[in-house]
Q: What sequence folds into this?
């Protein structure tokens, strides 16, 4: 029963992406013509081009909204395939468990590596630390457990995490059929190795098996406790469906990898997103990954807002590098299904949405309001909040534009704006207070990092470097980039404030407020009561505007 049944159930299908593309096309075909009817005759060519860009950006945002909601729905009904082996262990293969660290060694994490219900494995601490206390701590730990724990250090620390892994595997790969990768903060379950290993017995095309992840419930700092649900929702709402309907990615930790596959592709690529690039390269070779939802590891969420921004910047630059260097080759591969390619593009593109969103704001909030002679439509994010004229005192200027967009367009734009947090509403429905706080906090961190993300994309495109090591002259470059980003955030926030006042477009308040609040969160931290209350303001304002719009409609 085993292999044949599993392959039949595990075969990938294009159903989910047919649903995504079908629903998206229906939205585009319904709304785009209605939007174009608002273009006045004989408009200047530049205005027409801007309106085309405006509509194109809307279509992109709608695609992402449909993707978020559809994959979350499919994931509810998808579970990991089961392998029936009658209680017998399918293999006694030797496994190297690679624990990577750089000045962030965790004794509890390594102890979880040692506490496995599988016998044939060794633990290797791949230490790139530069801090003397950390190095000494690791040395003492290894001496106390020398029977199964081995230490690997390198003199030249190049190639990021990929270089650290490749350095160790070049020495160890001939001795182990499989190897596992875990990060410094990763807590592994006892069945980590025994629970993942059987999936390789399906066939030789299984290149890696990825375990599930949850945020570590023992984190004590407030920022992590408040936003760690983001980790849980990602693994609950996106990964299960990818086993059957999309592209399964190696996440850089919490996974077991076939050593021969690593050898065949020449190791991990020299990039800060070695996980995504490696997944892409081996998929071109015909290998696939499997996600297992019932083997659950724990990882830590960034402990403060600064570390969250740094992680986001690293992901943005790394994703930009992947899309420019490795994704084109994958697109040309005949071994990868079209819906897997589209899944990678959309999934990676989520991290890069800041750039098109900023462009959308420039067009929708500044250019279109100043060219209403040529274009008469004002959608939610480009429209003034309208109150009935009889409710406005005579000494208050009447808001400038008429509410001429349809209820359908308002609805689709509202769903688009909140698509990423709708799963949180579903999972936290029984706890409205926690649901509101999470939605508000997630909205703030998304809005406050749009300029930082856009600068990260531009920085890579100009320098072709996804990361600047903090040494020598390159440290100056990092400080210049960070300083320029902070300045741009303030300038852009003030520009939005001016436009908001000039056009009475109070929809812009939440974005500008988030960008200005950014520096306060830096200085006074998330734990500050005043700051903590203020981060809930942008979402609250947006929610009030939408609810009031619905009320006045009704």
A:
């Amino acid at each position: 029963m085993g292999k044949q049944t599993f392959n039949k159930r595990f075969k990938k299908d294009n159903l989910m992406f047919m649903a995504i593309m079908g629903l998206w096309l229906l939205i585009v075909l319904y709304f785009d013509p209605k939007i174009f009817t608002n273009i006045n005759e004989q408009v200047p060519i530049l205005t027409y081009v801007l309106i085309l860009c405006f509509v194109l950006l809307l279509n992109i945002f709608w695609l992402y909204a449909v993707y978020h909601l559809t994959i979350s729905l499919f994931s509810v009904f998808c579970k990991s395939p089961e392998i029936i082996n009658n209680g017998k262990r399918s293999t006694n293969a030797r496994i190297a468990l690679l624990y990577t660290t750089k000045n962030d060694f965790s004794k509890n994490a390594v102890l979880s590596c040692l506490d496995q219900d599988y016998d044939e494995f060794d633990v290797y601490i791949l230490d790139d630390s530069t801090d003397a206390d950390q190095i000494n701590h690791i040395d003492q730990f290894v001496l106390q457990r020398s029977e199964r724990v081995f230490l690997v250090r390198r003199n030249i620390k190049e190639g990021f995490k990929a270089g650290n892994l490749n350095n160790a595997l070049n020495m160890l790969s001939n001795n182990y059929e499989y190897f596992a990768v875990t990060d410094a903060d990763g807590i592994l379950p006892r069945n980590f190795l025994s629970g993942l290993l059987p999936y390789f017995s399906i066939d030789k095309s299984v290149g890696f098996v990825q375990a599930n992840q949850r945020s570590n419930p023992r984190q004590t700092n407030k920022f992590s406790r408040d936003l760690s649900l983001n980790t849980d929702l990602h693994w609950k709402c996106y990964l299960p469906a990818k086993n059957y309907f999309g592209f399964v990615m190696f996440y850089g930790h919490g996974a077991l990898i076939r050593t021969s596959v690593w050898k065949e592709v020449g190791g991990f690529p020299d990039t800060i997103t070695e996980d995504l690039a490696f997944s892409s390269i081996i998929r071109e070779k015909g290998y696939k990954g499997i996600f297992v939802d019932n083997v659950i590891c724990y990882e830590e969420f960034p402990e403060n807002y600064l570390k969250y921004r740094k992680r986001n910047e690293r992901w943005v630059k790394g994703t930009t590098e992947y899309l420019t260097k490795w994704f084109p080759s994958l697109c040309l591969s005949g071994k990868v299904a079209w819906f897997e390619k589209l899944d990678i593009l959309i999934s990676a593109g989520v991290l890069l949405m800041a750039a098109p969103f900023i462009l959308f704001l420039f067009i929708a909030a500044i250019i279109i309001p100043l060219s209403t002679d040529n274009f008469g439509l004002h959608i939610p994010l480009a429209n003034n909040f309208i109150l009935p004229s009889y409710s406005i005192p005579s000494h208050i200027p009447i808001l400038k534009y008429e509410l001429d967009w349809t209820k359908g367009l308002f609805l689709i734009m509202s769903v688009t704006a909140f698509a990423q947090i709708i799963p949180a509403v579903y999972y936290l429905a029984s706890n409205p207070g926690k649901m509101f706080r999470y939605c508000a906090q997630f909205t703030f961190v998304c809005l406050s990092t749009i300029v930082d993300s856009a600068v990260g994309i531009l920085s890579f495109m100009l320098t072709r470097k996804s990361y600047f090591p903090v040494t020598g002259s390159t440290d100056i470059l990092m400080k210049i980039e960070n300083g320029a980003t902070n300045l741009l955030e303030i300038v852009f926030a003030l520009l939005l404030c001016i436009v908001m006042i000039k056009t009475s477009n109070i929809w812009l308040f939440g974005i500008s407020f988030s960008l200005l609040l950014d520096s306060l969160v830096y200085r006074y931290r998330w734990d500050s009561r005043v700051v903590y209350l203020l981060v809930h303001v942008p979402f609250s304002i947006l929610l009030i505007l939408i609810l009031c719009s619905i009320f006045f409609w009704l």
